[in-house]
Amino acid sequence: MSSKPTSNVVDIAHLRKSCRACSLRDLCLPLGLDSDDMERLESVVHSRGPIRPGEHLFREGDTFHAIYAVKTGALKTYNVDSQGREHVLGFHIPGELAGLDGIYPGKNRCNAVALQATSVCVLPFSRLEEVIHEVPGLQTQVLRLMSRELSASAQLATDHSADERLAGFLLNLSRRSERRGLSPRRLSLPMPRRDIASHLRLATETVSRLFARFQEEGLLTVRRRDVEIMDMETLERLGTAYDIDNGAGGARRPQST
Amino acid sequence: MSSKPTSNVVDIAHLRKSCRACSLRDLCLPLGLDSDDMERLESVVHSRGPIRPGEHLFREGDTFHAIYAVKTGALKTYNVDSQGREHVLGFHIPGELAGLDGIYPGKNRCNAVALQATSVCVLPFSRLEEVIHEVPGLQTQVLRLMSRELSASAQLATDHSADERLAGFLLNLSRRSERRGLSPRRLSLPMPRRDIASHLRLATETVSRLFARFQEEGLLTVRRRDVEIMDMETLERLGTAYDIDNGAGGARRPQST
DNA sequence: CTGCGAATTTGATTGAGATCAATTTTCCGC
DNA sequence: GCGGAAAATTGATCTCAATCAAATTCGCAG
After folding, report:
1. Are A139 and B159 inside 8 Å of each other by CB?
2. Candidates B56, B129, B144; nearest CB to A103
3. Measuring CA to CA, which residue among A116, A114, A115, A235 is closest to residue A175?
4. What is the SS3 assignment for A3?
5. Distance in angstroms, CA of A161 to C1' of C19?
6. How far: B163 CA to C14 C1' (Å)?
7. Cis peptide leading into B5, omega within 30 of 0?
8. Secondary-structure breakdown of chain B: helix, strand, coil percentages, each rounded to the nearest 5
9. Mean pLDDT for all residues in chain B
10. Which of A34, A231, B141, B154 is most deeply buried (CB count within 10 A of its CB)?
């Protein structure tokens, strides 16, 4: 990868896939790595895309060989259960990883499909494992990212009312939007209502009605997939229990046994 | 750690905490390590317990400094939300890890309490990170275990009816029991109904009624916390969507885009 | 611009599981 | 063994969100 580029075109291609030049480097795996370590990471990464909306990146049961980092666009991951029902596990926006759950059994445990035109970095797992081993900072970062996924997933599995879940979901998107340097108030939802509903274990109609109600109550302005948060404080009060990255780690008050 | 033992007592103490001598080594972190690597792992591990029922191992908001492997007994992990409601995240039986979700923010994200008299191995994280770095097989095993947790947690977050959830829960316990070399049919539940209910997002009364119904239908014989699975096949049909370790990775049939 | 299918919204009704309310059983400490 | 408290069960009722059923709006190919 450090061989002389044969033309300008190659240069540009290289730059595009470079972690060091990537605007997402502080959200993604490279976070905390120095330039040398990032270079080593780059050596195993390659780019893929654009993937068209509706096209799959991987499918449940496929042999697991890579994890993926979203560069642009958005993915959803989902399962289909034995009765043919679809369950949306999560949404992945730029800077986020997908496919981590396939490591264990060596097969992908879910399907990943593009919601929009999407490009990703492909991280072939066997080579990534080697680099993780060589770069301690990367090891730390991988463990952190997986740990964060674990918290997020555990939160989702908890029991809350429909409004708490939707409020928490929107708050979560807001935080993720903010981390990417976008507005925490203006969201452009990459997924249809049906997918939000499935993800939150609700009916599509319920999600629609909740959006309507939140709007009536002055929490949001909703126009199709464009959402503006008008009353962040109330939304937070509603959704906090559902939110992941509430900073400190969630200690609210000590409680005796 | 390889210095001459000063007495027999020390020998026994050492043996007790030794990964190499541990009956759980094939379920836990040491899986796949050779004797030398296990010895290195041992050098960072220490034992703790017994922890009495109701006593906490760690609490949400505590500074994260270790993960824990259950040796005997059982733990539950839970959160308390902003409205004081308890949410049971999971149960941990011998050979399983707890506390992995604290890595990311550096604070524990949940509370862990003993359900029975419980002893654990303490794995101080900073030292564990070093050993992971030195022992490639351990790195692989840690990634696998975290990946498995991720799948398990994602499964829990999916939408299923009350009977599917309870059936899946029991199946899951059955598999875990089997992995430990115990009977997959005879379960001794370490937790009260209330905790099962919270974990499955159900009311205690609903869990009780479901146990009664499953018994009527000949699926189970239930006597308080002792459960015998009488009709594994039907239970599997009900609960499969909810179960984690269904071997192959869950690919049922390919589905066109 | 027009029309068609998909997505979304809105309304009416139903139902699974929660909640409220008693018992009954079990578990322990004394 | 006895008494009391916690756990579990059982029954009656209620409620939130699902389902069923249209109506609207939107996106887009022709």
Report:
1. no
2. B144
3. A235
4. coil
5. 15
6. 20
7. no
8. 40, 20, 40
9. 86
10. B154
